[in-house]
Amino acid sequence: MSQHFLLSAKARTLSVRKVMELTDDQAFQLFKEVRWGEGNEVACPDCATIGNHYFLRTRKQWRCKDCYHTFSVTSGTIFAFHKLPLRVYLSAIAIYSNAVKGISALQLGRDLGVQYKTAFVMAHKIRESLMEQRDDRQLSGEIHMDGAYVNGYIRPKNKKEDHIDRRLVENQRPDKRCVFVMRQREETEASETKGANKTLTFIIKSENQADVSKLATEFVKKGSVICADESNAYDVLHAKFDTRRVNHTLEYRSDAGITNNLAESYFSRFRRMQYGQTHKFGNLYLANYANEAAYREDTRRLPNGEIFMDITKKCAQTRTNHDWCGYWQGNKRLAERLVA
């Protein structure tokens, strides 16, 4: 039996220790190359002019030759206005890359030697970058769909006679949400089994026909095969796609070989991230947490060094986010990412 990829040396191409040992100049050069590539040409974040701008060596900043805007290697990115050395942010990305089931802000703060508030915002900036830079192109081939509910638990009363039926809508929490996932099976040879290679997640209030139909129409190519369970939310898909169902009250896999196991495997990682790491998802940032679990599923067979470089590139390409500038001073997101 061959060795699992994650146990091989090819999976370990990144050392957190080496990232933490980078000098300020090395960290600066690494982020610069990830953002603009090798060479001396950089892009002004204000006027977008690309060229060999004036470099202020003592300040490690550039001055644009066209608009005379002064900018740094992180200006205009998610890490703009940072107060800690750039090496600390790269170390945070390295630790984040190695955490296969997510990482809590408390643990990240301990690893980096920073306070909880700093680590909390740092981790959310990375999640925001993954959300902003995700690939929203349509899925094709065999697509597995499913939904799972979060934030719906209410502790029952102590006395049995005080218990009420929580299955009724009027007795449920108003902030209960459904994480809806669509996963595309990787096309391989008949002898190979690799699972999914692309995952899209969305937050809806409930698993309903209107939202499921809207999302499937927008994000699934015509001619695709959809695998789902027997929830009536997927009944409308039969008119648009080749839809195959499995009744989970009777079986995990139908006699015809139909499953939605790719969606179930996503929720397995998502629940482990919820129960073992973050414990609680606020609805304002639930979409980011769900997308983080999707990203970790899609990159599960990549070397950790490649994951590190990909996340760093996404952070460099993400514009400065209003929600995470002055978060602890009250500047927070006003509305959740919810599919209407």
Stretches with pLDDT under 50, minimum 5 residues: none
Biggest sheet statistics: 5 strands, mixed
Structural domain count = 2
Q: What is the tally of beta strands?
A: 10
How many alpha or pi helices? 9
Multimeric state? single chain
Classify the helix fraction into a percent range: 25-40%
User: What's the Cα radius of gyration?
Assistant: 23 Å
SSE string: HHEEEEEHHHEEEHEEHHH
Distance separating the two termini: 49 Å
* Average pLDDT over all residues: 93
Strand order of the largest sheet: 8-7-6-9-10
Shape: globular
Brief account:
By secondary structure, the chain is of the alpha+beta class.
Task: Give a verbal description of the structure.
The protein folds into 2 domains: 5-132 and 303-329, no CATH class; 142-281, 2-Layer Sandwich (Nucleotidyltransferase, domain 5). 33% of the residues lie in helices and 14% in strands. It is built from 9 helices and 10 strands. The radius of gyration is 23 Å and the shape is globular. 32% of the residues are buried. The mean pLDDT is 93.
